[in-house]
Design a protein that fits this description.
Blueprint lengths: L2 H13 L7 H21 L20 E4 L4 E2 L3 E6 L2 E6 L4 E2 L4 E5 L7 E7 L2 E4 L7 E5 L8 E5 L3 E4 L7 E5 L5 E5 L3 E4 L7 E5 L8 E5 L3 E4 L7 E5 L4
Parallel strand pairs: 1-4, 2-5, 3-6, 4-7, 5-8, 6-9, 7-10, 8-11, 9-12, 10-13, 11-14, 12-15, 13-16, 14-17, 15-18
Length: about 230
């Protein structure tokens, strides 16, 4: 069986029982399911996809800020091996296609990685493990923050484990999702609205997922709206 089939089967076993089942059994089952989901997340932390590169302009040396021009980006927006970038999207009529917006640091980059969706327009992905907005720090020694801030616009995904917003920090800094407006809609299994994730077991930083406005709708199995997961030091 595939990972998707295994997780879906486990989910059915855990949650198909009647309400008469004991609370302790259901709690135990939920714990096992949570562990299985975490194991799955750890195996696919960074999607390997081909995307349009530097679509909003070239980076310069050191941390910098780039604002995307209004328009249509049918093959996504990607910045990889960055040493620090704040990417701003503010276009109510714009569209970003599959596989979404991705900003990732290099293995030695030390600057913050941020996506600011003042108005994200419509950003959509349509395949498995294709996150619509993905902010990612790869440098395990970096103390920088990875973040996504969404104020307006529509974020849509329709694939297995395709998150609306995914913030991942493999370094020693914070991971932050801040949603103040807009909509997020996901339509497949384990397609969370947002996940703020610290992946470094030595980290003492904070993973935050905050929703102050807007709407999140998930319609697949185990479709959590938004949550934070900290795999750092206990």
């Amino acid at each position: 069986m595939s990972i998707k089939q295994n997780l879906s089967s486990l989910h059915q076993i855990c949650y198909s029982e009647s309400t008469a089942e004991s609370v302790s059994r259901m709690t135990s089952c939920a714990s096992i399911l949570s562990g299985a989901i975490l194991g799955f997340i750890l195996t696919i932390t960074v999607p390997a996809v081909t995307m349009a590169a530097n679509e909003c302009g070239a980076e310069v040396a050191g941390p910098d800020t780039i604002t995307c021009a209004p328009g249509v980006y049918p093959t996504g927006i990607a910045y990889s091996n960055s040493d620090g970038l704040t990417l701003i999207i503010d276009d109510s009529t714009g569209t970003v296609g599959n596989p979404g917006v991705q900003v990732s640091s290099s293995a030695v980059g030390v600057g913050d990685i941020a996506i600011i969706g003042t108005n994200i327009g419509t950003t959509s992905t349509t395949a498995a493990v294709r996150h619509a907005l993905f902010s990612n720090i790869n440098n395990t020694s970096s103390t920088a923050t990875a973040s996504v801030l969404l104020s307006d616009g529509a974020v849509n995904t329709s694939g297995f484990f395709s998150l609306g917003i995914y913030v991942r920090n493999a370094g020693l800094g914070d991971a932050l999702i801040q949603i103040d407006g807009g909509t997020i809609t996901t339509t497949d299994d384990f397609a969370y609205g947002g996940l703020s994730y610290i992946a470094n077991t030595n980290s003492t930083a904070t993973a935050t997922a905050a929703l102050t406005g807007g709407d999140i709708t998930t319609t697949g199995g185990t479709g959590v709206g938004i949550f934070a997961l900290n795999w750092g030091a206990w």
